Amino acid sequence: VSSWVTHVIVSQPTHEDRKAVLSCIFRVAVCCWNFGNFNTAVEILSGLKSDKLKPFWLSLSGKDKLPLLDFLSSSLLTPGPTQEYKEAVERALDIPHSKVIPFFGTFLRDLKTVFNGMPSLLVLPNNDTQELELVAQFQGEDHFMSRVGVGGIINMKKIEQVRQVLDDIRAFHQHAEHRRKELISSSTSEP
């Protein structure tokens, strides 16, 4: 989708045609945001932010700039989930008939952050020190944890954060299942 967006704009013969196509594509991105299709909105924004479009963006005057593009970019194309994105997801999930499509990259990014950023084991303090030691020693190219011994315990905070990400995924799945059941029940009840 990102490549297609870039290609459609660049392939237009005139500057006015490129602006017209940009306007149409941008309206699609805004509709995707409003309807809860966040994955497509991110793909469209990624295409609009392509390096191939830099000369086109530089050629636009101030009145042609799209302030909503900056809002969507700052909401969707950030390293971490923003408050605007969280609120938009909640709004979309509150619409029972809406087919909400999250940007799955956020789930992968969040899981990667938890797995790489937190130790898996805590070493219990011995009698000499009263501090907990965090252990995250990866061995070899397969990055399996090395054995610590009997003094280590599982980092429950890490497990809780992974569970939170999985609960977020489950919320989208439950919404889709509820929507599917309502569509089936409404189609069977019609005369």
Automatic annotation (TrEMBL):
SMART domains for the chain: RasGEF
Ribonucleoprotein listed as a keyword: no
InterPro entries associated with the record: Ras-like_GEF, Ras_GEF_dom_sf, RASGEF_cat_dom, RASGEF_cat_dom_sf
Record's keyword terms, sorted: Guanine-nucleotide releasing factor
Gene3D superfamilies in the cross-refs: Ras guanine-nucleotide exchange factors catalytic domain
PROSITE patterns: RASGEF_CAT
Matches recorded under Pfam families: RasGEF (PF00617)
Annotated ranges, domain Ras-GEF: 1-191
Name of the featured protein: 1-phosphatidylinositol 4,5-bisphosphate phosphodiesterase epsilon-1-like
Organism: Limulus polyphemus (Atlantic horseshoe crab)
